[in-house]
Amino acid sequence: MKFSITKDKLVENVNHIMKAVSSKTTIPILTGIKITASHDGITLTGSNSDISIKSFIPLEENDKEYATIEKNGSIVLQARVFSDIVKKLPSEFVNIEVDSRLMTRITSGSSEFNLNGLDAEEYPRLPLIEEGNVLHVRTDLLKHVIRQTGFAVSTSETRPVLTGVNWNIQNGNLSCVATDSHRLASRTISIDADENAEYKNIVIPGKSLNELSKILDDSSGEWVEIVITESQILFKAKHLQFYSRLLDGNYPDTDRLIPAESKTDIVLSTKALLQAIDRASLLAKEERNNVVKFRTLSNEVEISSQSAELGRVFENVDIQSLEGEELKISFSAKYMIDALSRIDSQDIRISFTGAMRPFLIRPVEDEGILMLILPVRTY
Amino acid sequence: MKFSITKDKLVENVNHIMKAVSSKTTIPILTGIKITASHDGITLTGSNSDISIKSFIPLEENDKEYATIEKNGSIVLQARVFSDIVKKLPSEFVNIEVDSRLMTRITSGSSEFNLNGLDAEEYPRLPLIEEGNVLHVRTDLLKHVIRQTGFAVSTSETRPVLTGVNWNIQNGNLSCVATDSHRLASRTISIDADENAEYKNIVIPGKSLNELSKILDDSSGEWVEIVITESQILFKAKHLQFYSRLLDGNYPDTDRLIPAESKTDIVLSTKALLQAIDRASLLAKEERNNVVKFRTLSNEVEISSQSAELGRVFENVDIQSLEGEELKISFSAKYMIDALSRIDSQDIRISFTGAMRPFLIRPVEDEGILMLILPVRTY
């Protein structure tokens, strides 16, 4: 293998791949990054037990030349060191050449690295995915959906299936739900898919979605193609393929958790409430549970918390409307901050069905988003 | 005590004070910040066993009004929480009022905090410093000197005196030296001081100087006043007083470490050498000692390193002149990077007296700076 490539393009793509490379792996070759030079460009591959990422650098694009191949081939190089090296190389161009003993010579300006390569034949194959049904989602919308649901997955391995986000696709809708059994986040969007496309109980690890979101570029109105199989999901963006394994097990039925009726409905500013709870939590944090109290007054709500050691805080937030009964309730400030900070709409509606029942937070304008939080008993 | 103050000014000054506040302290009241309102402004004080910082906010300055005092007084509030609170307050203004039971009411917009205060009488007094001889140093110059010497202090408590920077003042010169016994950094500057001012064996903790440097503002050509006593040093900038304790013990005589003659003298670009060593260290880091090899060639020097596992690297840097013998030497890449990254001049002269003797790095233009590194035996 022998090629030269522009440093910036190489660095950018190595950064993507590094999202899938773990230094802690039971398969030593997976601490490496696989580099393949072929007639049309350079492919980089990284993988861990959950995620695999493949990134492609074309020889040229939009009249810019990125790479010149002198000889096709493949090599696996230690990922962390390779990534550090390419970032620091002195020249705008990098030459990479592999000899018959897999010694890989990387030169750039007056710098010369000779790295011990590993045989690319020993690198595990990526899952073979039959592209039957392909779903299409706008990249920026997919990133929003991930941000608005992924935060609510469980971080505990007690019920592994809850560490994932549950996707259901039916009638041209994608519905995503995550819950850690104390709170829930869900969003439904319409997607571009075959009418008959129907997938149930797809559970994608929250970590995979998080890493995917980091490397998807939503600046240019691109679309992501999604292919789902029994055990894998593949996201295809321009020059990028992102594979994640799916979680085993049945995701619980979350519909029954969502109260159908409400006794108190409040409409108020998302930002004002978020900031008030953020401040109130400063004293709540010092206590064990980070719980704040919330009660309705005539034209406002009062959020308060106290710490025996530090003192008390009272925050008042104006409300736009209050329907139904007066209410006193307590909840985790963290869960509320998590939910509110994922809602981009100016105003939200909170629907309560009593101090001990889960309550719902929805943007006033968009019913596709629903957040649910279980209260804490303190009053 | 009762006053109101602009939020931005309060946040800025609390941030300064926080540099002196430690959450780990054997004196509980020192986890607090002392706030004093008097006729001319607000004073904030923070302290730990090494550093005390006093910051003053005048009622007004440059036609800007910062604070209004309704009632003089003092209080001590838990520093971490107070700092978090003021940063997040909703309005441009903050009102602070202390009642007779030391309950401190902080209001801003619709936010109200009631913090348990501590009696300011119980807060330790800052050291009393007689202002006899006062030295004057330009703020930006003082920050440079700290950056160019402080990095070389020892981080080990085996010889506590080496964790400080040794200052000597004589004949209008301030000479600063730090060494951890493997490398040394020194800088001498001329300062504005009384002719007879003479101080020897002043050892200031490296950490103190580091924190001082962070809060000194060098944007407007200000000067720092320095007062030195038996056990304390006081730095006075505009509205800011920074006290540090001095270290006990005799600082070793470092002059005898510095070779008077040299056998090989090289002049080359600071940045080119720094970057080459930075890259060469990528493979050296993986080994135990982070050592790179350095040898002179006809018109260049070669820096190399190797790791059995990863491979080898060769870097070549052009030199502007070479006087004396050819040389092969090995040294810690980290020490070299530390030294080179503190030299702002374009070119440096490195003077060697053989492969097993300490070598000197000096800027070509400015002889006030001197860095010394002990080599490592590998050739």
UniProtKB/TrEMBL annotation, chains A, B:
The answer, when asked if Membrane is one of the entry's keywords, is no
Q: Which PANTHER family match?
A: BETA SLIDING CLAMP, DNA POLYMERASE III SUBUNIT BETA
Indicate the segments forming the DNA polymerase III beta sliding clamp central domain, all copies: 137-253
**Keyword annotations of the record:** Cytoplasm, DNA replication, DNA-binding, DNA-directed DNA polymerase, Nucleotidyltransferase, Transferase
Q: Which GO terms describe its molecular function?
A: DNA-directed DNA polymerase activity
In what residue span(s) does the DNA polymerase III beta sliding clamp C-terminal domain sit?
Answer: 256-377
Kindly provide the name given to this protein in its UniProt entry: Beta sliding clamp
Q: Which gene is this protein's source? A: dnaN
Q: What is the lineage of its organism?
A: Bacteria, Bacillati, Bacillota, Bacilli, Bacillales
What's the short name of a Pfam family annotated to this entry? DNA_pol3_beta
State the species of origin. Scopulibacillus cellulosilyticus
Q: Which protein family is named in the record? A: Belongs to the beta sliding clamp family.
